[in-house]
Automatic annotation (TrEMBL):
InterPro entries the record matches: Pept_HybD-like_dom_sf, Peptidase_A25
Enzymatic reactions: Endopeptidase action with P4 Glu or Asp, P1 preferably Glu > Asp, P1' hydrophobic and P2' Ala
Originating gene: gpr
Subunit structure: Homotetramer.
The organism's taxonomic lineage, starting at the top: Bacteria, Bacillati, Bacillota, Clostridia, Peptostreptococcales
GO terms for biological process, alphabetical: proteolysis
Pfam family, one: Peptidase_A25
The EC number(s) this enzyme carries: 3.4.24.78
PTM: Autoproteolytically processed. The inactive tetrameric zymogen termed p46 autoprocesses to a smaller form termed p41, which is active only during spore germination.
Broad EC category: hydrolase
Name used for this protein in its record: Germination protease
Family: Belongs to the peptidase A25 family.
Propeptide: 1-12
HAMAP family: Germination_prot
Function: Initiates the rapid degradation of small, acid-soluble proteins during spore germination.
Amino acid sequence: MEERIELQIRTDLAMEARELYQEEKKQEIQGVAVEQEDIKDVTITRVEVLNDEAAKIMGKPKGSYITLESGALRRADADLKDEVSQLLAKELRALVGNKRHIKALVVGLGNWNVTPDALGPKVVSKVFVTRHLFQFYKKDKDDDLAEISAVSPGVMGTTGVETGEIIKGIVDNVRPDIVIAVDALASRKMERVNATIQISNTGISPGSGLGNKRKALNQENLGVPVIAIGVPTVVDAATMTNDTISMVIEAFTRQSNKGTEFYKMLQELKDDEKYSLIREILEPYNANVMVTPKDIDEVVLNLSQIIANGINIALHPGIDLKDVNRYIH
C-alpha cells in the first residue's frame, strides 16, 4: 500500500500536489483522473480524486478540483475578465448542479486589512445578494434570481470567534442549499500566483493561504455541500528562492561549457531536497516569510470582480455577463 509523501513544499492547489508526487515517484497516482482543456488564453485542468488511497497520497479530500490558469490574469483586460468569468460560471454551475431555485450562502474568508488575504471579502462586496428581497416580498422562488446571502466573517484575531463557528451559526439559521467559500491560497510556484483560480467541491480550511488553518468548512461540519473558490495570492520565501535557483541553474547550464557537470548535479536535486536546504539556511534569520507581488492591490481587485461575476452568472438564472458588468461597486 502506498503512503502519502510528506512534502514540505507549501501548496493548496490539487494540481500541484499531483505534480509533486509525479516528480518524486515518476508515475501517476492511481485513483486520480486528470483532464486538461485549452480555451483561448486559459488552461482548464480538472483533477478528480476518486478514492481514499489517492486522497491520502495527495493530502486532499476525495472530490473534484478544477483550475483555470492564465498568466494574463495578472494584467487582465476587460475581454479576458469577461472570458474567465464565463468559464468560471460554467464550471461552478456544473458543481452546483442543475438546481434552478437554489438558496446559497457566499462566504468571503480573509482579512480586509491584509491585501493578499482580502480576496474573499472583496468578492462578497460584489456578489448580488437577494435573500432580503425574497423575505420582503414574501417569495419562495423566482425564475430569474436565486436566493443569495453573503457574509465576510473576518478572522479570529479580530473577532475572537472561530470562523467555522460563525458560519455554522449562520447556516443553521439561514438554511442554504449550498455554501460557496472564497479564500486566498498559497502556491508552490511564483508563475501561478495571481494567475490561477481553483474550484473544488470538498470545502476549505479558513486561513489556508497564509498557513493558518482552522476548522474546515465542509459538508461534514456544516451539514450542507461546500464549494470552495480560491486564488493563490502568496508563495513562501523558500519556494520562491527554490524556483529562482532552479531557473539560474538552468540558464547557467545552457550558457556555460565549464562546470556543466556541477550544474547538472544541482539539477538532479529533488525540489523538496532543495526546499529543505533553503529553509534550513533561512531559519536562523527568521526569513521564511510569505511573499506577494507588488501590484497585489490591483490584481486582487480584478480577481474579485472575475470571481463575483462568475458566481452571479452561475447562481442567478436570469443574469448574464451584460448584467453583471452593471453591478460593480
